[in-house]
Amino acid sequence: MNNLEIFEESKKYMPGGVNSPVRSFKDMNMNPPVIESGKGVRIKDEEGKEYIDFVLAWGPLLLGHCDEDVVNAIQKTSEKALAFGAPTKLELDLSRFMCTNLDNIDMIRLVNSGTEATMSAVKLARGYTGRSKIVKFAGCYHGHFDGFLIEAGSGVLTEGIPGSLGVPQESVENTLIGIYNDKNQIRQLFEKYGSEIAGVIIEPVAGNMGVIKAEDSFMEELRQLCNQYGSLLIFDEVMTGFRVAFKGAQTLFNVKPDLVTYAKIMGGGLPCGAYGGKKEIMENLSPTGGVYQAGTMSGNPIVVAAGLATLNKLNNNLEYYNHIENIGSKLENGLLKISKEYNLSLVVNRVGGMLTIFFTDLKEVKTYEDVKTCNVEMFKRYFKHMLKEGFNVAPSQFEAMFLSVKHTEEHIDNFLSAFKKFACKENGMC
Ligand SMILES: Cc1ncc(COP(=O)(O)O)c(C=O)c1O
């Protein structure tokens, strides 16, 4: 069966032919390739066409596809441990690793996805403070938990829908919407509701409205307001954890979170998640405390083994982050140079190995409002062109592209050559 045949057949059995909406390429008005295998930075579809991958499973594969140490760990563990639903030494190893190697994490709870991590962290914040309201920022995405499906980024933003059907009004009436990088607005929100706010959840480097780094003074204001009103500050590092730096986006700011959520890279490509923070807060989780959160598969041995192999490899090779910074900056500078040469209006935002090309006439993109000025039709043309040239990038203007330790300068050069052809076509010169 070719790609199209598989995808059409899939639509009979899975809504839209997929298990997560953006995979369908619906907003790109085309059918997606059906991926058969991946190794390093290359993925191959069912028709044998290869792509250099800048999606990396939407972030997790910092070591590239099927890294041999990760695959070995999975194979070795699977011979003796699939699942127990009981304590394991592997869970201790991963939890201790994260608590000792990351900042501001005394204790951690392992879960199965980023959504589970963020929704559980919010529940814990509510249980700990005895308050109901949470603040999330427009354009940030924290998973598909009802309370977050309002003004969300990622697929919700790509599909241009205000939220989701099936979310009762009661589920979002305790969600307050903050404006990213707007100190005055958040201060006003606290002045009005401060004593009712359990916590503020934020992507410290947003990736789900395209890449936008929070401003230092904005983060400081958040910390100060949370201190003043007794609310918890939750960093959602599902995307940025172990990516923008080994210790995550936390290290980019002079601000300490109370709770942090992780997923993606920490599971080495398998379904994972975690949330952690101060002992005093974490001990409110059942069985030591009254906030109930559980999971049959939480701390699954195979996932934990893949995660440990990944994190150990990163920790033993911190120079990987220099490599990613170098190729990231080469990509950024190359894109800017080409856009100048061909008079193409765009802004490139990058933090480490996360980058977004915003097709906009603005000079900089710092807010959700800025993001909305993007020329989505131009993005679609760019996307289709790059895919045809053999480069897999996220099928949305409002996502990040990701770099791995396996990308080389040559991959970046090739990407830039393909981008140059696009710029030339757009400009009418080719
Ligand atoms: C910042 C952030 N938080 C939470 C999530 C949800 O994670 P998952 O898709 O594993 O449920 C995502 C997913 O992309 C994310 O980027």
Mind explaining what this structure looks like?
This is Glutamate-1-semialdehyde 2,1-aminomutase. The chain is an alpha/beta fold and 430 residues long. The chain has two domains: 3-66 and 318-426, Aspartate Aminotransferase, domain 1 (Alpha-Beta Complex); 68-316, 3-Layer(aba) Sandwich (Aspartate Aminotransferase, domain 2), CATH 3.40.640. It is 38% helix and 15% strand. The protein has helices spanning 3-13, 68-78, 89-101, 114-129, 154-158, 169-172, 183-193, 216-229, 279-282, 301-316, 319-341, 368-371, 376-388, 409-426, and strands spanning 35-39, 42-45, 50-53, 107-111, 133-137, 175-178, 197-202, 205-206, 212-213, 232-236, 259-262, 273-277, 347-351, 354-358, 391-392, 401-402. The strands form four sheets. Strands 4-12-11-10-7-5-6 form a seven-stranded mixed β-sheet, sandwiched between helices. It has a four-stranded mixed β-sheet with strand order 1-2-3-15. Strands 13-14-16 form a three-stranded antiparallel β-sheet, covered by helices on one side. Strand 1 and strand 2 (42-45) form a beta hairpin. Helix 11 runs parallel beside helix 14. The longest helix is centred in the last third of the chain and has 23 residues, at 319-341. It starts with a helix and ends with a helix. The mean pLDDT is 96. Pyridoxal-5'-phosphate (PLP) binds next to helix 4.
Task: Describe the structure using short key phrases.
single chain, about 425 residues, Aspartate Aminotransferase, domain 1, Aspartate Aminotransferase, domain 2, four-stranded mixed beta sheet, 16 strands, globular, pyridoxal phosphate, 4pyrrol_synth_GluAld_NH2Trfase, porphyrin biosynthesis, cytoplasm, isomerase
